[in-house]
Amino acid sequence: QVRLVESGGRLVQAGNSLTLDCRASNRAVSNNGMAWFRQAPGKEREFVAGVSWKGGSKHYTDSVKDRFSISRENAGTTVTLQMNNLKPEDTAVYYCAASRTPYSSRDRSTYTYWGQGTQVTVSS
Predict the structure, then answer these.
(1) Nearest to 51 by CA among 28, 27, 67, 31
(2) Is residue 111 within 8 Å of residue 1, measured between CB atoms?
(3) Over the stretch 3-48, which tens digit does the pLDDT of each residue have?
(4) Could you tell me the CA-to-CA distances from 83 to 25, 86, 116, 117, 119 in Å, in that order?
(5) By CB neighbour count within 10 A (0-12 exposed, 13-18 middle, 19+ buried), where does 98 fall?
């Protein structure tokens, strides 16, 4: 069993930056793709960014492509989401997830483990 714990969410003003971290409880996810999803009130959970097991393949949803950056380290057990130039529409609960495969995907059903989420609120 793997436990994912997110941290770093808080209230920030628009235009500022924030870094989210996700730490896995063990190295079982080292060979798996990892991703960040987010869910705003009244909306479905959506893919934000994903990274492959070696960190070489990354992809982003269009709305964050030029502002967010995903990376992984610590033998693949820590995944970081660097968020720059935050906008009010980025407000959501952000979730970390570990895939069943070595690669990330926009499809939520391909993820086995999920964290509890961390709240990001961007004020205008």
Answers:
(1) 31
(2) no
(3) 999 999 999 999 999 999 999 998 999 999 999 999 999 999 999 9
(4) 24, 7, 19, 16, 13
(5) buried
Q: Tokens 């996810």: give the residue.
A: 29
Q: What is the CA radius of gyration of the chain?
A: 13
Token output for 8: 């770093």
Residue 59's CB is within 10 A of a number of other CB atoms, namely 16
Q: How far is CA 43 from CA 3, 17, 83, 123, in A?
A: 25, 23, 21, 19
Angle at 57 between CA 55 and CA 62, to 5 degrees: 120
Residue 89 is encoded by which pair of tokens? Answer: 């529409």
Q: Which two tokens stand for residue 96?
A: 């970390």
pLDDT tens per residue, range 70-109: 999 878 899 999 999 999 999 999 999 999 999 999 999 9
Please name the residues in contact with 54: beta carbons below 8 A apart, sequence gap of 6 or more.
76, 102
